[in-house]
Design brief:
- The model is unreliable at 221-225 (pLDDT under 50).
- The longest helix is centred in the middle third of the chain and has 17 residues, at 186-202.
- The chain is 48% helix and 15% strand.
- The chain has 14 helices and 8 strands.
- The protein is globular, with a radius of gyration of 20 Å.
- The chain is α/β, with parallel strands linked by helices and 307 residues long.
- The protein starts with a helix and ends with a helix.
- It has 2 domains: 5-139 and 292-306, Rossmann fold (3-Layer(aba) Sandwich), CATH 3.40.50; 143-285, Rossmann fold.
- The strands form 2 sheets. Strands 2-1-3-4 form a 4-stranded parallel beta sheet, with helices on both faces. Strands 6-5-7-8 form a 4-stranded parallel beta sheet, sandwiched between helices.
- Helix 6 (115-128) links the parallel strand 3 (104-109) and strand 4 (132-135).
Length: 307
């Protein structure tokens, strides 16, 4: 880390998440942000509200605050958090840090496969305020991160007598195919991480556990009424494949997500569970990393490489 005590006062680490709302009446504006300014249809907002109400609201912001607090104690420099798509916006947090005398920011996206997107969004604000910004590259294939996921899968697998009949479904958020066709490495990165995680799990087990990669939480349309094509296979298709191959149990490991949010607490714990049970499969989910120490270890290493 560069600089002494005075230098530490001018340096900060910024964690940037996708974002979520604190109040349900903000959902319409939040959904419009997600849709890049296109007004959110009423039925979409109603569906979002239903999901948020079903899980008692998203814990994502609170988890991010816990992560920032723990990481700050590790690093010895100020650590703050922000969102891309809702308050507190990264651009506003960067502006505040600048006023407070921060001249250099290490940005760690809390999105391991889309770091370049988060960095591009923040760089304009940093340049406008004369702040030097260093952004972490994609870190989804970090050995330490893959080990954190692998250790949770091993702990969550059923007794060895059932492991041979268990399908481990590693999931990540789907994206429109148009994003991938523009050259985004997302699918390749997710699948590479999945292979590393599966290899780490197999190295500890004698069972012939099956591994599948699935992409969840697909959107509905392109925003102009046209049906968009989304990255797959989706959850129903992957569950069908597990059944066809004779598996009786499914363990979902959301390797594309770091923390509990609607995609985990509703799309998996409610919807995917019902899908699995409707196909005669028992269902379990691997716990999220949230603010656990092994995730803090990973983030500390990333942040120190930037400071």
């Amino acid at each position: 880390m560069r600089g002494g005590a005075d230098g530490a006062m001018t340096v900060a680490t910024l964690l940037v998440s996708h974002g979520t709302v604190q109040h349900l009446d903000e959902l319409e504006a939040f959904a419009t942000n997600i849709r890049r300014g296109r007004p959110a249809p009423r039925e979409l907002v109603s569906e979002l509200r239903r999901k948020y109400e079903a899980i008692g609201g998203s814990p994502l912001n609170a988890i991010n605050a816990q992560v920032a607090s723990k990481l700050e104690r590790r690093l010895g420099v100020r650590v703050v958090w922000a969102n891309r798509l809702w308050k507190p916006y990264a651009r506003d947090v960067i502006a505040t840090l600048s006023v407070q005398g921060v001249r250099r920011i290490a940005l760690v996206p809390l999105a391991q496969y889309s770091a370049h997107v988060y960095g591009a969004d923040a760089r304009e604000a940093a340049d406008a305020h004369g702040v030097e910004l260093s952004c972490a590259p994609n870190w989804g294939d970090s050995p330490a991160l893959c080990e954190a996921f692998a250790s949770r899968i091993v702990s969550a697998l059923p007794a060895s007598s059932q492991a041979d009949s268990t399908a481990v479904m590693m999931t990540a958020h789907s994206l429109p195919r148009s994003v991938l066709e523009s050259g985004d490495p997302y699918e390749r990165d997710v699948r590479a991480a999945g292979e590393r995680i599966a290899a780490a799990v197999r190295a500890r087990l004698r069972a012939h556990t099956g591994f599948f990669v699935a992409f969840q939480s697909q959107g509905v349309s392109a925003g102009d009424g046209r049906r968009a094509e989304w990255l797959g296979p989706d959850l129903p298709t992957t569950l069908d494949r597990a059944v066809e191959r004779g598996y009786r149990h499914v363990l979902v490991a959301p390797i594309g997500f770091l923390a509990d949010h609607v995609e985990i607490l509703y799309d998996l714990d409610v919807e995917a569970r019902a899908m699995a049970q409707g196909r005669g499969l028992t269902f379990a989910r691997v716990p999220s990393l949230n603010s656990d120490d092994d995730l803090i270890d990973v983030l500390e290493g990333i942040a120190r490489s930037l400071l």
